[in-house]
Amino acid sequence: MASPTFPPAKDASTDPSPSSVPQAPKSSYTSALSPLTSAFSRFSQWRKSFDLPNPGTVENLQKEVKSTHLTNFMFDGARADLTKSLSMNPAFQVTHSFILGSQVSTPSYNFGAVFANNDMFLQGSVDHEGNVSARMNQGWAENSITKIQTQISSQAGHSMIQLEHDYQGQDYSLNAKAVNPWPADLTGIYIGSYFQSVTKNLALGVETLYQRPTPDMSDFTTSYLAKITSDDKNWIATAQVQPSGILQATYWQKLHEKVEVAADLQLMASPQRRDAIATLGAKYDLRMSTFRAQLDSTGKVSALLEQRFAPTFAFLVAGEIDHFKNAAKVGVGVMIESSTLTPEEMGMPPQH
To answer: What highest taxon heads this organism's lineage (predicted)?
Structure first.
């Protein structure tokens, strides 16, 4: 029986195996950054241990108050919105809007369309005078969104484009915005904001506005923000202060599952003007209707009722009385929704 043979011993000078290949020394650049990256990693872990919530965006600082008050919902005259859904996934719908008999605006017609999927939102509209507006939101990740808004108008000075990007961190939010930017001479309006949760209930932030309407004219202002949220998120208080002497403070509270109240105070204490406006509002969500009421210190009392007689049909009645000017406004409207989709396509259970 032949004795077993063994391979010859490996020579380190000629063996190409990874264990014997000499390791390349780390570059001086990497070695110099190593303490910084290590410190940043330890800081990130320490910051994450606080488990602070995301404070939301600066744009939505008074979101709950605006949803309760009538500022974004009030209208007068006659109004009709006819909406037709053409697809559910992706979502695609068109809308015809009519406004007649308003004291503050001329009669108008507007055609709009909306397209949306998981990553993109597109909205466009054109009115009877040929004014076009469009909006696009592109989500690159769950916490990173790019927004573009544009408006093309036949009136001089009314056309605009706005570029914006939102980034939501674990406990902070960043926003950068440019309105009518022109790279050649850097004219336009530029806005940047940072909002940081300091505790689980308190968030502080800063917003900076840089205006450059012409190459030889510019303005730079900064405002400071604060937001306090209760543990159960049933009340929220906010404040925004500008060094020029402008203060806006809001308070929102959810009294009941269907009842919300909100207060807004705006103060201006500049050498040229001293003024203050206080607004109180309430919102009631009933089974098939929503009622909003509002009172402010300028003597205006307003209310809006949105009554749904069916999921696809709503009737609106709005009214406002200005006691100081002895004036009144009334508005009525309808919202009708229709669809060419079957109940199964809309995600509803089949009818038997």
So the answer is: Eukaryota
**Residue 346 CB partners (closer than 8 Å, separation 6+):** 85, 88, 339
- Tens of pLDDT, residues 87-119: 888 999 999 999 998 888 889 999 999 999 999
- For residue 236, which of 221, 247, 222, 226 has the smallest C-alpha distance? 226
pLDDT at 308 over 80: yes
By CB atoms closer than 10 A (0-12, 13-18, 19+), residue 124 is middle
Q: What type of residue is 54? A: N
Q: Is 183 helix (H, G, I), strand (E, B) or coil?
A: coil
* Closest CA relative to residue 192, chosen from 177, 171, 182, 213: 177
Across-strand partners of 161? 150
Structural contact between residues 53 and 198, judged by C-beta atoms closer than 8 angstroms? no
For residue 317, the tally of other CB atoms under 10 A from its CB is 14
- Asked if residue 90 has a cis previous peptide bond (ω within 30° of 0), the answer is yes
Please give the C-alpha separations between residue 339 and each of 80, 175, 342, in angstroms, as whole numbers: 17, 37, 8
Q: What is the token pair recorded at 61?
A: 């600082």
Residue 159: count of CB within 10 angstroms of its CB: 14
Least Cα distance to 302 among 116, 92, 76 occurs for: 76
DSSP-derived pairing of the beta strands 172-182 and 132-141: unpaired
3-state secondary structure of 101: coil
**With 60 as the cut, is the pLDDT of residue 325 above it?**
yes
List, in order, residues 6 or more apart from 245 with CB less than 8 Å away: 268, 269, 270
